[in-house]
């Protein structure tokens, strides 16, 4: 079934390539054919090596796809952070980081490449890998759907490559966090529906009666992102063999739809999905139950109800009706409470295991991620208040806010999960080097602080300069003077990003050496018997 579906789409892509209205579309169609063909060939080679073995043995967990997800997460994470460092240097030193003869290196093309790579490629693969791992363990059931989980994984990689190459070719619908054009959106919709069905099917056939709270958070992320993606990307292709489309919404309706999508992409992709990671990996790592399971349920329902209404706070002082702006601001302030309830629940899970903050750098990284989550979810409601927003909006303060959440919360909880998964999946006693985790933590934490503080200074300076008037009632500063005032902050921001990127490289090196079994990462079957895990029947009790 998966092979037949891919074959149909390859034929469609071939027709689109043959009749392409523009060069970009032709390149994208051939890219899809190459990637889908590689998937088909790989699937055929894999099937040929089975030799009668059942690849979908229901008595075993599907770990191979999680391993691929871990590898993809690390690859895309390094790539996305590298592009981030490049564009930070472009803003800091435009006189020698600008190449007019190479249009694909311009900031306008690299910036969406960076955001999509770190959010959808890195973050998305972390969510795919962890959700497939967690739902199996907590449901005590193998992933449903046979080959369909693999279609979800490789289909998602195809989406990432099509989006990234499209940006470099200048193909974009110019919507924040939703830049891919219509044909990429349609493909992602198909992949995402398959993802939802695989996840629901696994829960449906569970052997554990209770549905653990992490699965509720994962499910809310999958369902809501599907709804947001479909509505915000409603468009009519100019031609079915061309890359351009026309949006269904326009004007203030388009703005409202875009920031309903944009803020909830933050809320449900970068928050509820990663809270699911928190609710599984922190208790698992410290070997303690969730501090308050009742609070986790209250956290879930209050968060998903309130978050969906907060988007209009991005549109203060615009043509959006003021009642809608006020609605968004009110719900944003209300979000502070459930957000901090979740943070407190995660931190207090360490009750009785506080010593692990000192002895286990992976635990420290995940707990510090909660501190950043708490700080970001206080700063966000603060910035949504209209009086504060009049100073902060359109300035670097917003950039600092986004990156404190992205690097501190999403990055650190993701890194913690990957540090947990690699020894578990490859059956190693420990990571290759604990000291490298320490180095990763401190180098990247210093990088985050450099980034945040420099952008706070730049943003507040910028906002105050924009609203300064002279005695004649004219603006005190020209725009170029506000840009010049931020130069030192830009330099510090670039240094912070470079430090964070360096920490991620240390992590990648550590994980590769762990998989290879070097250093402290000995396999369980080669170490002293006292360390060996006793044999346990598979799919036994829910972890």
TrEMBL record:
Return the cofactor note field: Binds 2 heme groups per subunit, denoted as high- and low-spin.
Catalyzed reactions per annotation: 4 Fe(II)-[cytochrome c] + O2 + 8 H(+)(in) = 4 Fe(III)-[cytochrome c] + 2 H2O + 4 H(+)(out)
* EC category: translocase
According to the UniProt record, one GO cellular component term is: plasma membrane
**For binding heme b 1; low-spin, which residues are annotated in this chain's numbering?**
114, 403
Q: Which InterPro entries match?
A: Cyt_c_oxase-like_su1_dom (IPR023616), Cyt_c_oxase-like_su1_sf (IPR036927), Cyt_C_Oxase_1 (IPR000883), Cyt_c_Oxase_su1_BS (IPR023615), Cyt_c_oxidase_cbb3_su1 (IPR004677)
Residue span, Cytochrome oxidase subunit I profile domain:
1-543
Provide the primary localization. membrane
What pathway is this protein a component of? Energy metabolism; oxidative phosphorylation
Sites where the protein binds heme b 2; high-spin: 401
Instruction: Mention one GO biological process in which this protein takes part, according to its record.
Output: electron transport coupled proton transport
One Pfam annotation, family name?
COX1
Q: What is its EC number?
A: 7.1.1.9
Cofactor(s) of this protein? heme; heme b; Cu(2+)
* Protein residues bound to Cu cation: 263, 313-314
> What GO molecular function annotation could you give as one example from this UniProt entry?
cytochrome-c oxidase activity
Q: Where can this protein be found?
A: Cell membrane
Report membrane topology: Multi-pass membrane protein
Identify the PROSITE patterns for this entry: COX1, COX1_CUB
Which keywords does this Swiss-Prot/TrEMBL entry list?
Answer: Cell membrane, Copper, Electron transport, Heme, Iron, Membrane, Metal-binding, Respiratory chain, Translocase, Transmembrane, Transmembrane helix, Transport
Name the protein family: Belongs to the heme-copper respiratory oxidase family.
**NCBIfam families under this entry?**
ccoN (TIGR00780)
Q: What is this protein called?
A: cytochrome-c oxidase
Q: Which organism is it from?
A: Hyphomonas pacifica
């Amino acid at each position: 079934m998966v092979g037949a579906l891919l074959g149909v789409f390859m034929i469609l892509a071939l027709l689109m390539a043959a009749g392409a209205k523009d060069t970009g579309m032709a390149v994208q169609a051939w890219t899809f054919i190459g990637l889908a063909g590689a998937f088909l060939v790989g699937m055929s080679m894999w099937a040929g090596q089975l030799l009668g073995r059942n690849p979908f043995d229901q008595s075993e967990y599907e770990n191979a796809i999680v391993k691929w997800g871990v590898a993809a997460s690390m690859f895309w994470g390094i790539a996305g952070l590298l592009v981030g460092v490049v564009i930070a240097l472009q803003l800091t030193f435009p006189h020698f980081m600008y190449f007019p003869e190479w249009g694909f290196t311009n900031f306008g093309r690299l910036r969406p490449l960076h955001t999509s790579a770190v959010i959808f490629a890195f973050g998305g693969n972390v969510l795919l890998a962890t959700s497939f791992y967690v739902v199996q363990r907590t449901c005590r059931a193998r992933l449903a759907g046979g080959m369909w989980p693999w279609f979800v994984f490789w289909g998602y990689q195809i989406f990432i490559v099509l989006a990234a190459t499209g940006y470099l070719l200048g193909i974009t619908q110019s919507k924040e966090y939703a830049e891919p054009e219509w044909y990429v959106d349609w493909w992602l919709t198909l992949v995402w529906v398959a993802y939802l069905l695989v996840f629901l099917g696994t829960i449906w056939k569970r052997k554990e009666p209770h549905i653990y709270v992490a699965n509720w958070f994962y499910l809310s992320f999958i369902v809501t992102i599907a709804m947001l993606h479909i509505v915000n990307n409603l468009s009519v292709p100019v031609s079915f063999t061309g890359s351009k489309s026309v949006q269904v919404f326009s004007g203030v309706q388009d703005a409202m739809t875009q920031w309903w999508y944009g803020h909830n992409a933050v809320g449900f992709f970068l928050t509820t999905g990663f809270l699911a990671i928190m609710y599984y990996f922190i208790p698992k790592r410290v070997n303690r139950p969730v501090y308050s399971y009742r609070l986790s349920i209250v956290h879930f329902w209050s968060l998903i109800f309130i978050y969906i209404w907060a988007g209009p706070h991005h549109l203060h002082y615009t043509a959006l009706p003021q009642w809608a702006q006020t609605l968004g601001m009110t719900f944003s302030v209300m979000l502070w409470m459930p957000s901090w309830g979740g943070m407190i629940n995660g931190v207090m899970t360490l009750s009785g295991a506080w010593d692990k903050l000192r002895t286990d750098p992976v635990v420290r990284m995940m707990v510090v991620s909660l501190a950043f989550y708490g700080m970001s979810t206080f700063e966000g409601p603060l910035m949504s208040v209209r009086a504060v927003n009049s100073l902060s909006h359109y300035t670097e303060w917003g950039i600092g806010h986004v990156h404190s959440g992205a690097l501190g919360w999403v990055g650190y909880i993701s890194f913690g999960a990957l540090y947990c998964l690699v020894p578990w999946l490859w059956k190693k006693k420990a990571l290759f080097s604990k000291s490298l985790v320490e180095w990763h933590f401190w180098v990247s934490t210093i990088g985050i602080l450099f980034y945040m503080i420099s952008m706070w200074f730049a943003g507040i300076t910028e906002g105050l300069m924009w609203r300064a008037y002279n005695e004649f009632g004219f603006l005190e500063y020209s725009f170029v003077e506000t840009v010049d005032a931020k130069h030192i902050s830009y330099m510090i921001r670039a240094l912070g990003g470079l430090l964070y990127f360096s920490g991620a490289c240390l992590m990648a090196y550590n994980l590769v050496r762990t998989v290879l079994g070097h250093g402290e990462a000995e396999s369980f079957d080669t170490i002293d018997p006292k360390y060996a895990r006793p044999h346990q029947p598979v799919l036994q009790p829910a972890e």
